[in-house]
Amino acid sequence: MVQSETPPSPDGTKRRDLLATGTVVLGCAGACALTAPFLNSLRNPSATTLSDNTLEVDLSALAPGQDMTVQWQDWPIFIQRRTPQMLAALQAPEHMAALRDVDSKVLQQPKDATNWHRSVRPDYGILIGICTHLGCVPSFEKPGSTPDAKGGYFCPCHGSHFDAAGRVLRRAPAPYNLPVPPVTFLSDTKIRIGHSAGDPGFSMSDIQQI
Ligand code: FES
Questions:
Q1: Taking CA atoms, which of 8, 48, 123, 153 is between 20 and 30 Å from 186?
Q2: Is 133 in the pocket of ligand 1 (CB under 6 A)?
Q3: pLDDT in tens, the chain (210 residues)
């Protein structure tokens, strides 16, 4: 979707239009040598695109602490199944004090994900994997993979860190939290991406920056 006007963001950054962002992602897929697991994940057999351009995803193989990536429209969608430890880390006072938009005041998500875990259900995080700085694709930091890794995301282009809810740390160059797509849970292990039962009027063009 092309925006004819790009209103300035609170820090003066211009909002990137969605078409341009898709170009960055696809360009990066070739030029930035995205990893084979990332490319494979975009062909995830657990995901099916329906005729209305929504995406149904089967989550039954996703174990606690794991993540998967699917493609919806031109965006990589990160899906993580959170452990109790990941949820506790999101609410730690010292961690919350280090976040730029801890309460998700900037419209980067539907109303039913405007909460501390930025998702419809706390045990699943579902984010658009596009860094809000210049559009690179962050990577998942599996909990326990390093002493500091608590299930967040790291953008290798300029070093932005996001927590497991996609909330950006204050010192990162990325100005906003990672966007959250509209999501509906069809069952405990099946979701539809592209429609929000909790915020049916939500449109991707409402997002401040993607
Ligand atoms: Fe992610 Fe610059 S594009 S930090």
A1: 153
A2: yes
A3: 333 333 334 333 335 544 344 434 433 433 344 455 555 556 678 899 999 999 999 999 999 999 999 999 999 999 999 999 999 999 999 999 999 999 999 999 999 999 999 999 999 999 999 999 999 999 999 887 877 777 899 999 999 999 999 999 999 999 999 999 999 999 999 999 999 999 999 999 999 998
Check pocket membership of 24 for ligand 1, CB cut-off 6 A: no
Topology annotation, domain 44-210: Rieske Iron-sulfur Protein (2.102.10)
158 is catalytic: yes
Query: Could you give the CA distance from residue 5 to residue 73 in angstroms, rounded to a whole number?
Result: 22
Ligand 1 mean position, distance from CA 174 (Å): 6
Distance 200 CA to ligand 1 centre (A): 31
Name the residue ranges covered by the structural domains of the chain.
10-41, 44-210
Reported as type and span, the H/E element at residue 39 is helix 36-41
Whether 104 and 119 have beta carbons less than 8 Å apart is answered as no
Relative to the CA of 136, which ligand 1 atom is closest? Answer: 3
